[in-house]
Amino acid sequence: MSDKKDIDAIWKALNAPRPGRATALGGGITSMPGVSSTSRVLPPRGSAASNTEPVIKGMAGTVTSMASMGGTPVSAAAAGAAKAAAAASSASGGAHGDVQRLPMLDDVAMAAESRRHAGHYDPARAGVSAEELSAYVSAMQRTINCLSDPDRSTRKAAACALLARLTKGDVASPPPSPQLLQALLCGPLLYPATQLLHDPGEATRLTAAELLVHGATTVPDFSAVLPVLMPEVVRRMGNLPVVEPAEEVRLLLTTLVAAVVARADEPTLSAYGADLCTFLLRAFEDGYHEIKKAACACCVSLAGRAPPGVVEASSEKLLGAVLPNLGHQHSRVRLSVIEALEALIVGRCIPAALVRDTAAPALRPVAYDRAPAVREALFAALARWLGAPPPPPAGGDSSGASSSSSASAPIAAPSRATASVLLPLLLVGLSDAQPGLAAKSLALVEAVGEAWTGRAKAGDMEGVEPPAATTSATDADADAYAERAAAALGLPAPYRGRPGAGARAMVCVCSRVPMPLKMLGQCHSRAYIKTHQTCGVVCALGLPAPYRGRPAHGARAMVVELLPALLPPVVAELGEWTVTLRQCAVRQLHSLLVLAEAGATPLLPSLLPSLCASIGDEAPDIATCVMGSVHVLGAHARPRHWVPLMLDQVSNSKLSLMQKANTLVVLSGLLHSAAKVGADASDVPDDVLSSLTAALAADDMRSSEHPAIRQQLLSVCRNLMAWQGPRCVAVARQLYTLLLQLYGFERDAGRLADVSAAMSQLASAVGRDDGGFAALAADHGPAVLDAAVACASDWSAEAPGYLVFRALLLTSGPDTLASLVPRLVDALAPLLENHEADANLRLGALQLLDQLLEDAVRRDALGGGAAGLVVTRLLLPPLVWRAGKSAAAVRFGAITALATALRNRLAPAALLLELVEGGTLLPLLHQSLDEDWYTDLRRMACFVEEQLLLSVGPSMGDAARRAVYVELLKRLDDASNAVRVGACGALTAFCTTMPATYCDTNSGYLAAGVVVHMDDSAPEVQEAACRVLEALAAVKPIAVAKEVGKVVERFRSKHYCDRVLAACGAAGQRGGG
Known about the structure:
- The protein has 1073 residues and is mainly alpha-helical.
- 65% of the residues lie in helices and 0% in strands.
């Protein structure tokens, strides 16, 4: 047969490589399934290799030292071997050349690489003999061969079996020792295990990764694996796009790299630093949060173990990949990122310029993270970066190992530029919403300050001069003397010696008793007194939590030194458009001012305008924090420094209404703090104080209709008076004018009470407690009135001069008001006589007069002799009729004030009678009775007629009486029942004041005109008309009875007629006519 083969062909076919299987293991061990590795393979007959030695002997003879490899990656060599093997396979023309291969190096290349790496690694380095290694490999040879099987399930099963055998062992043998496992992974299993990372099956790749992780965490020395492993790991996950699709595999690869970093030595990390950083970039960019956390842990380990410069070369790319994760939705990821950043910066892996320009801006939102643990970690990391010593180990165990060497390593002192960027972020923690976290932040700031000043004293900081001693020898001697005196005095319980310095300073500074301050000055230096005074200021200021007094000296000194660099960026951020950034800036500013104390004084020119702009922020919490900063600034900065600056702000005519209000808010806060801490009132010169009050009382400021400006002006006045006290005497008139202006503006009772309280406060400050604000009017009223009426020709309803004039009259005492009446009349007469003047102003002036005439305390000042001026010059001229509704409103105001004066009997009867008989008053009243525009004006005119008749009726002549009742009878036909009832009231007064000798004819006319209205459809009119006739019947019963008798039979309401007839009968019995 033609297909028969000879012996050589048979042997050649038997020894040919099987499809999908590795041809041999490393060291020449054959890969025939089921054939022991110790068996010999017969070569073809006549072959030159017929004298092949056993495999074990060949393996031992070809082992070379690892030093010849140099510890460098050999992926290029592996690729070359793979290509050579592929070419050899293709040239052989085997029957299986067209079989589908795995997406990895083919079997020949894998066998070649396995043999080469197994031959290059000496098992003795792991403490294992070649015979022991060969015996262990032979026991699982079939499993190893299946790793390259074309079938996916076979490879998966083989990989799982291999993992189980190497980690747990089996029934026949236990798992290999760490030394044997090292020999396996560095030798025969190296290439198959790493190539499985590229297997198409996810489960197979996952198993291979688990095997490598187990090896990296178990074997004594894993470095021999890295030349082959790292290129494959980087190929799988280090390049873009990432090849590995399964997040579980990517997580195991990250864990593998972390294990490698945790156990590698410095030379190894130096050799593979670039690959490790490249891998970490992809891990930080991964979407799986567990991978991000694992990458952060690996970064912490790498930063602590790698030699200097290894990570720094990739620091910019690492920051670009790490910082975006600060906004991750999981707080644990954000916490891990902060830990990674802390390790990188403490380990000096990131240049200071990147920390300032890249890391710090990204960390700002984290200061407001919703998770307190994240904020706490950030503040602790910032403190470490600023040079604070590391916290003690948990539980006080100083021997415990830390997670990285950088956790306890000393950090280099940050430069001024770096500190000025990082310190504001740490200061945000001082105002954290969590009280415990705020207290921890304060402790961190003080620790940073202590380290800072310590380095400054030691001269370890470039450009920082060691601070001078703040306590002289005299201070030390005085302290020693005080200690000895307290011990010798033998103070009773609870004292156990001299009290603490803080308590002593608070009592000395805040007690306001001259003697302790004098004694303190006799025994202490000026610096010592200043220090204790500052402690008293802090106590009086009442800083919120976490402050429990004055912050530590180191923190204060550090902030003062860095303040010129710290403050401008913070002030600039107050104008950011996002609320979060403004919140961050304002909290930083408050903490800076608390720590800087008086050190912020040189920066006031740039700081105060920013505070004025930020105090009106739309976010209430920001505005509140800004006000807290204003209070701190006002407590520590001397008034002589900020008062002139605020004077310039207040005097700026270019400010809008809202800007003026904001400026006044800041000024009020500064004055409030100065008063609260007892700042020296004389620190501000008299001319500056006078200029400030003049600016506040200027027309463009006090005449503003903006409610916020008026409210803040009042607040400024009260705080200024509380601070200056008796020194307000020099500016009392200006303050009084300003308060009068505010009083004249207000119509709300509550606001008026506040202004009145401020006037009382001013009176108390200038020593007029006895008379209150009425005493102020007595002292300054004439001058203020002259100044107000000087511009009366330019008055309007809201003009400053008129408002001051109005408020002065309403707040003056009766004696002062009586002395001001002639000037009052001279000021208002031209206005009220001019019918072309502003109707609103004329009506307001008449209402002012009516208000004064109603005031039980002040109205007598307008009566008596002054009533002639008030009535004739102020009330009667506006009653002259003019067309139009505005004129009708003015006439109503005038007649209302006249009615008030008559009702309160302020106008003497002689004056009224003179006006009636002289023909001046009645024509004006009769015009008002005929008013067409305003019904209430007619009703009020009826009331004035009634009051006039009650006052001078018995003395009026017949002509005047005749003119009066005729006009009143007309009003009985008015369209308004209220006017008809009012007219009946005036007629009743007419009848009650009628003399008995009055003309019967006119009396009959009067009765006839009234009697018809007793049958009116309106009951109130019927009743009013009945009362008129009853009053008339008491004087003229016959005339009344005659007119009633004519209608009694046809009236529907006969009981009114019966009442009038009964009154007539009663009067007739008394002898009435």
